[in-house]
Automatic annotation (TrEMBL):
Belongs to the ubiquitin-activating E1 family. Residues 1-65 are annotated as: Disordered. The keyword ATP-binding applies. Its EC number is 6.2.1.45. Signal peptide: none annotated. The active site is at C627. The gene is UBA1. Pfam families: E1_4HB, E1_FCCH, E1_UFD, ThiF, UBA_E1_SCCH. Transmembrane segments: none annotated. This is E1 ubiquitin-activating enzyme. NCBIfam families: Ube1 (TIGR01408). Residues 917-1048 form the Ubiquitin-activating enzyme E1 C-terminal domain. One of its GO terms (molecular function) is ATP binding. One of its GO terms (biological process) is protein sumoylation.
Length: 1053
């Protein structure tokens, strides 16, 4: 969201009604029982012009006394935090100018959840607006842009009142706002409003887009204080040594680099010995190495003994902004592309020249016609008449930080000018220079885009066939841009979008094509219907298929061969890599993108020009060692992962195993073949579920939860301390419980402790659900049942082996107690006697606060954290970590998709030069913007023939006679045609031929058709939809040396 914010200067509003956590139904909204959001427009100059006024329709409203709706804002909260979000909800924002840029900013601000938004515009909608203003329709031409857009924007968030003002921006009118955003305004108006805002402490942003160019200016006053300059979680590290001296030197454990930088400030906790550090204010450090840094004078402190945690402290930073009148003459630029280092200064003058031209001629220059002094960019698209939808989100994307910054100091603001251009999108060949005739208006909804690119490209865009994979946040933005661009809006064009997910309430904060009454509907269907409203000419088909081998009958050779390109809007690497492989095979361009909070990236994959997405991969995430999880946690992440494993091991896996035991006659046979101790573990779980722990009533479920609580948080800890007493030392003389090993202590159950009861209630209900038993939320009733539970006495045992490292665990003999296995097998009831019985495995779902899942995770994790004196995590943080949630805000998504669509222009035009394309990277919190040429596809060679990942051998499997090629003929073909001796041949995981194959098998296969060999070896039939098979080769050249060669596409139909 373009987060443009204020300081909460307005008075507190009355307490508004809470937004319901359940989705609004469309029937209720239409019937009038639910007042329509923001539909209180009148014909006057100003509708609800005072942003502090309570909404007349009684709708939910943001303000300082309203709790944050975490079910709606959850992904955004993980970016901003609760404090910044609360201040955000007190910001009243004015957005002036409702062309493409203004509506994009308003959309993202409203999704972000400010206190109120006022839309200002005095002009009617024109044809050129429709190329970038997605809430205008052809029937709206001639109507005021703000008034038409207001009801559609108001639907985005029922917490945010949206009003309209069509009069002048007077000083009295501007005074109540915390943030004023000016778009599409004359320079004189910018200077006048800028002077008022600066004198009154109102934050001001000026944003403008002209064709392929964008301009942004921020003025946040004389004394802006930034408390968090990057939005990252503070770093922390465990200490192994601190020296006395001036300066003192701190050495951290070598498990991981500390990650600090010189100039950072840190604080200390849990230091044993040098306890003075535990009470020191934040200290500035100087990094000495990846595990060491120096601090201030420690020579007078006590001797360091052991332990301690050092944590980064975010220090406030004061920034002073120049008013627009001064900054215009003394500009400071944020560079977005270091390959265009000189462009910001040039564009600064060019935009002023454009304002001068408009003032003198009372109009803007016509595209591709007039080039006067200072307007040297006009022929490149810097005109007032051109409007490209994809530059709209790119200009406000740096605005994303200002709102939380202005309210709470979150993120580093733009200081103060930012210019952006995308000249690479214009034709590569100078012979194809656009003319005034090609770019003239045609009274078309694409006139704004035609002014920049000409009519020929517009026609070509309409004929495109694209496959969009995913209709989530990125998918919604892409579809919106496709509709505005006119992609697939002409004869022969088609967009196919697939997404198998349904809409959830948490999606509404950034997936802006969805509304509350759409919750539970399919994303792809709903998104397709929404963009048809934006542009009725778009040809779009929605599917609900997961892309993968299972759907290759749907997305087959005919489907992919008919495409012009693919755009990914996925949320996992496996699906991205699958689609990447498909695009490489079918030689289709791929537009890849992703976001993480304020960070985003774009990668363009062009056949025969760039590497593919899979050519480079991120390193795998570092996993938590098993022994750390089981016995030696030292961070809340460890206890949360332990709690997730508990959930799976208690409420999902045993139930699945029991159902398999009952229904699958070969279950026992397969289980006994499992490696290591798995057979024993599986049968123990089945035995507990069917025999020893099987409940008959709700009271039994409560009893089980109580006994399990004692086992995990008391008995197991006592056993651990029996094996490793608190003061035990290792062979080297150091304390066993030191460094990353935190000495635990057992807990004593207390039914008056809310955390203890939270665990019992959640665990008992989940356990009951797996058996189809009805539970209760009544804590008092559960407490009564607990008084009847008998908890067996526990005495630690000798001889219990506890592994202290994963290496020790791997080296231990994984012997299975055969007698115990037999005992378990004999104790299990006969499956025939259980045919009417089944269990109900529970799949973890983090976003339903009524299902006890997160209740259990939070309680289980925090109880274990208490065992080990680890600071607990609240529900919000626990959900982030345990649910592996990806933080997200609307503006990052919009900015990233804007960059994707700039690459789309180049792909559709068929740009051939590698340097024309741009991979993009951004972090709106810093702010940082970076662009680089895509990496060229690596070139390999055999003999004198160069090849890349895009090349392959094309082999026609069926001969002119109608007979298929045999293995013998296949081998001979490569020997004669390519001078390659095949030593191994495979298809997927099936080995079809190898030089070391037994002679009998080789003789058998030599004269068989290739498809027959594939069918026999893979034991799978070749589908009718398959036109060709892919073979992988290992080959020798004439000198009998191994050489790397491309794969084979073996055509069979």
């Amino acid at each position: 969201m373009p987060m443009l914010g204020g300081c909460g200067l307005c008075s507190d509003p009355p307490l508004p009604p809470q937004m319901s956590s359940s989705p609004l139904s469309k029937k209720r909204r239409v019937s009038g029982s639910e007042p329509k959001t923001g539909s209180n427009c009148s014909s006057g100059n100003s509708v609800q012009s005072d942003p502090r006024a309570a909404p007349a329709n009684g709708m939910a409203k943001n303000g300082s006394d309203v709790d944050i709706d975490e079910s709606l804002y959850s992904r955004q909260l993980y970016v901003l935090g609760h404090e910044a979000m609360k201040r955000l909800q007190n910001a009243s924002v004015l957005v002036s100018g409702l062309r493409g840029l203004g509506v994009e900013i308003a959309k993202n601000i409203i999704l972000g959840g400010v206190k109120s938004v006022t839309l200002h515009d005095t002009e009617p909608a024109q044809w050129a607006d429709l190329a970038s203003q997605f809430y205008l329709r052809e029937e709206d031409l001639g109507k005021n842009r703000a008034e038409v857009s207001q009801p559609r924007l108001a639907e985005l968030n029922s917490y945010v009142p949206v009003s309209v003002h069509t009069g002048a921006l007077t000083e009295d009118f501007l005074s109540p706002f915390q943030v004023v955003v000016l778009t599409n305004s004359p320079l004189e108006e910018q200077l006048r409003v800028g002077g008022i805002c600066h004198s009154k402490g109102i934050k001001m942003v000026v944003a403008d887009t002209r064709g392929l160019f964008g301009q942004l200016f921020c003025d946040f006053g004389d004394d802006m204080v930034v408390t968090d300059t990057n939005g990252e979680q503070p770093l922390s590290a465990m200490i192994s040594m601190i020296t006395k001296g001036c300066p003192g030197e701190v050495t951290c454990l070598d498990e991981a680099r500390h990650g600090f930088e010189s100039g950072d400030f840190v604080s200390f906790t849990e230091v044993d010995g040098m306890k003075e550090l535990n009470h020191c204010p934040p200290m500035e450090i100087k990094v000495l190495g990846p595990y060491t840094f120096s601090i201030g004078d420690t020579s007078s402190f006590s001797e360091y003994v052991r332990g301690g945690i050092v944590s980064q402290v975010k220090m406030p930073q004061k920034i002073s902004f120049k008013p627009l009148s001064v900054a215009l003459a003394e500009p400071d630029f944020v560079v977005t592309d270091f390959g265009k280092f000189e462009h910001p200064a040039q564009l600064h003058l060019a935009f002023q020249a454009l304002h001068d031209f408009q003032r003198q001629h009372q109009r803007l220059p016509r595209p591709r016609s007039e080039v006067g002094p200072g307007l040297w960019r006009a022929r490149d698209g810097l005109t007032g008449e051109g409007g490209v939808c994809v530059t709209a989100p790119l200009c406000p994307c740096p605005d994303a930080p200002p709102l939380p910054q202005a309210c709470s100091g979150k993120f580093m603001p733009i200081t103060q000018w930012l210019y952006f251009d995308a000249l690479e999108c214009l034709p590569e060949d100078s012979k194809e220079a656009l003319t005034e005739e090609q770019c003239r208006p045609r009274n078309s909804r694409y006139d704004g885009q035609i002014a920049v690119f000409g009519a020929d490209l517009q026609a070509k865009l309409g004929q495109q066939k694209y496959f969009l994979v995913g209709a989530g946040a990125i998918g919604c933005e892409l579809l919106k841009n496709f509709a505005l661009l006119g992609l697939a809006c002409g004869d022969g064009g088609e967009v196919t979008v697939t997404d198998m997910d349904t809409i959830e309430k948490s999606n509404l904060n950034r997936q802006f094509l969805f509304r509350p009454w759409d919750v539970t509907k399919m994303k792809s269907d709903t998104a397709a219907a929404a963009v048809r409203q934006m542009n009725p000419n778009i040809h779009i088909t929605s599917h609900q298929d997961r892309v993968g081998p299972d759907t290759e009958r749907v997305y087959d050779d005919d489907f992919f061969e008919g495409l012009d390109g693919v755009a990914n809007a996925l949320d996992n690497v496996d699906a991205r890599m699958y689609m990447d492989r498909r695009c490489v095979y079918y030689r289709k361009p791929l537009l890849e993108s992703g976001t993480l909070g304020t960070k985003g990236n774009v990668q363009v994959v062009i056949p025969f020009l760039t590497e593919s997405y899979s050519s480079s991969q991120d390193p795998p995430e570092k996993s938590i060692p098993i022994c750390t999880l089981k016995n030696f946690p030292n961070a809340i992440e460890h206890t949360l992962q332990w709690a997730r494993d508990e959930f799976e091991g208690l409420f999902k896996q045993p139930a699945e195993s029991v159902n398999q035991y009952i229904s699958d006659p070969k279950f026992m046979e397969r289980t006994l073949k499992l490696p290591g101790t798995q057979p024993l573990e599986v049968l123990e779980a089945v035995n507990k579920s069917l025999v020893s722990d099987r409940p008959r009533s709700w009271a039994d479920c409560v009893g089980w939860a109580c006994r399990h609580w004692h086992c995990q948080y008391s008995n197991n800890i006592r056993q651990l301390l029996h094996n490793f007493p608190p003061h035990q030392k290792t062979n080297s003389g150091t304390l066993f419980w030191s460094g990353p090993k935190r000495c635990p202590h057992p807990l004593t159950f207390d039914d008056s402790n809310p955390l203890h009861m939270d665990y019992i209630v959640a665990a008992a209900n989940l356990f009951a659900q797996t058996y189809g038993i009805t539970g209760t939320r009544d804590v008092g009733a559960v407490a009564e049942l607990l008084h009847q539970v008998q908890v067996p006495e526990f005495t630690p045992k000798s001889g219990v082996r506890i592994h202290i490292s994963d290496q020790e665990l791997q080296n231990a003999n994984a012997s299975v107690d055969d007698s115990r296995l037999e005992e378990l097998k004999s104790s299990l009831p006969n499956p025939e006697d259980l045919q009417s019985f089944r269990m109900y495995p529970i799949d973890f779902e983090k976003d339903d606060d009524t299902n006890f899942h997160m209740d259990f995770i939070v309680a289980a994790s925090n109880l274990r954290a208490e065992n080990y004196d680890i600071p607990p995590a609240d529900r919000h943080k626990s959900k982030l970590i345990a649910g592996k949630i990806i933080p997200a805000i609307a503006t990052t998504t919009a900015a990233v998709v804007g960059l994707v669509c700039l690459e789309l222009y180049k792909v559709v035009q068929g740009h051939k030069r590698l340097e024309s394309y741009k991979n993009g990277f951004l972090n709106l919190a810093l702010p940082f913007f970076g662009f680089s040429e895509p990496i060229a596809c690596p070139r390999n060679k055999y003999y004198d023939i160069e090849w890349t990942l895009w090349d392959r051998f094309e082999v026609q499997g069926v001969q002119p006679s109608g007979e298929e090629m045999t293995l013998r003929q296949f081998l001979a073909y490569f020997k004669s045609e390519h001078r390659l001796e095949i030593t191994m041949l495979s298809q997927g995981v099936s080995m079809l031929y190898s030089f070391f194959m037994p002679p009998t098998k080789l003789r058998e296969r030599h004269d068989q058709p290739m498809t027959e060999i594939v069918t026999k070896v893979s034991k799978k039939k070749i589908g009718r939809h398959v036109k060709a098979l892919v073979f992988e080769l290992c080959c020798n050249d004439d000198s009998e040396c191994d050489i790397e060669v491309p794969y084979v596409r073996y055509t069979i139909r």
